[in-house]
Amino acid sequence: MTVKMDIKNLDFYYGNTKALKDININININEVTALIGPSGCGKSTFLKVLNRMNDLIDDTKVEGTVLLDNENIYDKNVSVEELRKRVGMVFQKPNPFTKSIYENIAYAPRKYGIKNKNELDELIKKSLEGAALWNEVKDRLHKSAKNLSGGQQQRMCIARAIAMKPEVILMDEPTSALDPIATAKIEELIEELKKKYTIVIVTHSMQQASRISDRTGFFLMGDLIEVDDTSNLFTAPKDKRTEDYITGRFG
Q: Is the pTM here over 0.85, yes or no?
């Protein structure tokens, strides 16, 4: 399996507080890697480290290496803007801009220089098709994205990420605000997306991790306790703490 991102000896600090401790994990290309663990254990912090979203928070520090195609993303020569084009992010709550569906998806490509209307039209169609949303919204592209249902808004946010042609898509609990039907649609979409993209998903649902991921990492108190093929981790965990968590003894 080809490694897309390789994280070695990663420590992360908020001020003097060490939030992540010596994290080592490979993210494989065209796989879904799920991150599970109790609230506050470092999953979302780790996710944000992967595209330097934590740069936006004062008094944080990263030690160790985060390689994307063997290049350290924390190297001083790396453009954070370029990095975030390659490593896209979908957040917990759908966050559409107060604009039309079309303008939501066109916003970033325009900013990066795509001005031709035909090119934009094609990109928006492809992005919405990629997010399994085109057929539902093709007749109302110029209506407000705020009128979409929660599940549709989240798929539109995925389309917005796809429009930048990323290589990796990070998802931070993307279905936690959605009902079961919308959740099922997003899960089907993730299955489809991994054919083209590498996906890392933080999920509070172990059932979701077991359904959609190829590999799963279990975080606890800032430590990555164990990472393995998902079926192995859920059926034969190597660490007692993992076993206690997935059998509901704590968390």
A: yes
